[in-house]
Amino acid sequence: MSWFFWLLDSHPAVEEKILAEICKIIGEREDLDPKTPLVFRPEEMKKMDYLHAALSEALRLYPSVPVDHKEVAEDDIFPDGTVLKKGTKVIYAIYAMGRMEAVWGRDCREFKPERWLRITDGRFMSESAYKFTAFNGGPRLCLGERFRLLSDEICCGINLVSLPCEGGERSSRGAEACSDNVHESMG
Ligand code: HEM
Predict the structure, then answer these.
(1) In sequence order, what are the residues at sequence separation of 6 or more whose Cβ sits closer than 8 angstroms to the Cβ of residue 64?
(2) Half-sphere exposure of 180 toward its Cβ, with a 13 Å CA cutoff?
(3) Where, by residue number, does heme bind (predicted)?
(4) DSSP classification of residue 38
């Protein structure tokens, strides 16, 4: 989350888009009461495609688990022909894989949430766990992936929209803009 907010600081356009998405979603509430503390609902969080994309993009560039390793249980052969003897350690560098041109394209070093969105309808598109390896792949895939998405969305959304920000100009402007937007939506 620290890397995520650090990235937002240097990409204000992304922050604006996240705020716009959240504000639109909140603005659609029929029972909106600006005096009640903001609590996102599960059905609202499912609509946070751009935020999901931005969080995934931050994790691609700054994975919480940058290097992972396994030990070969039985003699085996990789699909590319690499022979693995029992007891061999296999290390894969999640950080490096997230920045490989061959995997992510020429703009692999840029923070571009759009790469996670379907061009036709802007909905979030997940990647194969063998391409986006931040949560491991195969049978030992992270069990908490969905859980962490929900907690990240809550943390990010509440921070950007609700909390007054001492000295953080953009965030406090964002919160005001959102509040205006929500009031407009309420008619
Ligand atoms: C950004 C947040 C997270 C990241 C990047 C992450 C990443 C990972 C990775 C790479 C592994 C594979 C470790 C290995 O076996 O080599 C893993 C496993 C696991 N994670 Fe996460 N994780 C995150 C959050 C969570 C949360 C919030 C939970 C629980 C609520 C969770 C529960 C687990 C469990 C239970 C496993 C073991 C799965 C197994 O070995 O079968 N993770 N995670």
Answers:
(1) 134
(2) 7
(3) 142
(4) P
Instruction: Please answer whether residues 14 and 172 qualify as being in contact, where contact means their C-beta atoms are separated by less than 8 angstroms.
Output: no
How far apart are alpha carbons 40 and 162 in whole angstroms?
Answer: 12
64 within ligand 1 shell (Cβ under 6 A): yes
Number of domains comprising the chain: 1
Task: Report the separation in Å between the CA atom of 148 and the middle of ligand 1, taken as the mean of its atom positions.
Answer: 9
Mean pLDDT of the 113-136 span: 96
In 3D space, the residue among 55, 152, 31, 184 whose CA is nearest the CA of residue 176 turns out to be 184
The response to whether residue 140 sits with its C-beta less than 6 Å from ligand 1 reads yes
Range in 6-15, 98-107, 117-126, 159-168 with the lowest mean pLDDT:
159-168
CA 120 to chain CA centroid, Å, is 20
Residue 136 in contact with ligand 1 by CB distance below 6 A: yes
Distance in Å from the first CA to the final CA of the chain = 35
Tell me what ipTM this predicted complex has: 0.95
Domain contains 88: no
Could you list the residue range(s) of the whole structural domain that residue 160 is in? 2-61+112-185
Instruction: Find the mean pLDDT for residues 80-101.
Output: 97
| Residues 4-59 pLDDT 10s | 999 999 999 999 999 999 999 988 988 888 788 888 888 999 999 999 999 999 99
Q: Which residues are annotated as a binding site?
A: 142
Residues 135-164 have a mean pLDDT of 82
